[in-house]
Amino acid sequence: MSSYRAGFACFVGRPNAGKSTLTNALVGQKIAITSNKPQTTRHIIRGVLHRPEAQLVLVDTPGLHRPKTLLGQRLNDLVRATWSEVDAIGLCIPANEPVGKGDSFIASEIGELKASLVAVVTKTDLVSKKELTEQLMAVSQLGEFADIVPCSAVSGDQLGVLTDVMISHLPSSPQLYPDSMLTDEPEHVLIAEMIREAALEGVRDELPHSIAVLVEEIIPEGNLTKIYADIYVERQSQKAIVIGARAERLKRVGMTARAQIEDLLGKRVYLDLHVRVAQDWQRDPRQLRKLGF
Ligand SMILES: Nc1nc2c(ncn2[C@@H]2O[C@H](COP(=O)(O)OP(=O)(O)OP(=O)(O)O)[C@@H](O)[C@H]2O)c(=O)[nH]1
């Protein structure tokens, strides 16, 4: 009988808990958007970890939050749908912040699911051994966990252990994806995420929720790939922020995103960016669908 295991896992936790960074560190390739601002992970992006004896498919979800807009509601629905489909859930709690109401809320939300629950204490590089021990104690009070694993996505500490633990909770199953596959997101989604990430660099805190990116066209021409994309904002004033004085800022956004996309595609890229205003796109079902939500 084969002892091969394969299945799905996701990391949950309050905003800024380190979920995206952890997913990226485990998969070993930049696939999910990360930023130092909360709630910027939009799409469900899967990374696939290949081991001789197992395949772990990581699903990245946005944070659960109090829905103020239609987008907020859809994101929450998306998160719950994902939770009900995975075999293991890692609840991420940063080592350097007190366990709080947000953590208990999520712990109780996931407590009823069929998935195995693993508590993941993240960012251990930021605390002393003593602080970490205290945090592990506090976290163990949050719920019934199959395992508790402290780790750091930045120093790499314990990432192997975490992978082994997540795999131990997967069912016996044949391989789900081919060996070469790291992510099954269509290229245009990854490209849109890279542009969005670049557009968010250094802008005001309320802006993250107001930016969406739509890749209109990807045209391969030999060794060059031409990409046409629109950056959507909600108001004229936001458009001015994104473009910047004499379009300097937009130029930088384009350069940053282009470098990343060239890495992703392994080809030279011509990137054409337009900033467009879609009034209140977060509240408009038609706009939301168009933008992929
Ligand atoms: N020092 C340190 N910082 C980390 C670590 N993991 C994540 N961070 C930082 O914590 C911040 C939040 O990380 P993200 O991975 O974006 O967090 P998230 O939980 O995906 O956040 P949302 O998308 O808001 O839900 C970023 O500034 C990261 O650089 C870690 O292991 N050590």
TrEMBL record:
InterPro entries: G_ERA_dom (IPR030388), GTP-bd (IPR006073), GTPase_Era-like (IPR005662), KH_dom-like_a/b (IPR015946), KH_dom_type_2 (IPR004044), KH_sf_prok-type (IPR009019), P-loop_NTPase (IPR027417), Small_GTP-bd (IPR005225). PROSITE patterns: G_ERA (PS51713), KH_TYPE_2 (PS50823). It is found in: Cytoplasm; Cell membrane. GO terms for molecular function: GTP binding; GTPase activity; ribosomal small subunit binding; small ribosomal subunit rRNA binding. GO terms for biological process: ribosomal small subunit assembly. One of its GO terms (cellular component) is cytosol. It is a peripheral membrane protein. Residues 203-279 form the KH type-2 domain. Residues 122-125 are annotated as: G4. Gene3D superfamilies: 3.30.300.20, P-loop containing nucleotide triphosphate hydrolases. Residues 13-20 are annotated as: G1. The keyword Cytoplasm applies. GTP binds at residues 13-20, 60-64, 122-125. It holds the Pfam family MMR_HSR1. Residues 5-172 form the Era-type G domain. Residues 60-63 are annotated as: G3. Keywords: Cell membrane, Cytoplasm, GTP-binding, Membrane, Nucleotide-binding, Ribosome biogenesis, RNA-binding, rRNA-binding. Its main location: cytoplasm. CDD domains: Era, KH-II_Era. Residues 151-153 are annotated as: G5. HAMAP family: GTPase_Era (MF_00367). An essential GTPase that binds both GDP and GTP, with rapid nucleotide exchange. Plays a role in 16S rRNA processing and 30S ribosomal subunit biogenesis and possibly also in cell cycle regulation and energy metabolism. Monomer. This is GTPase Era.
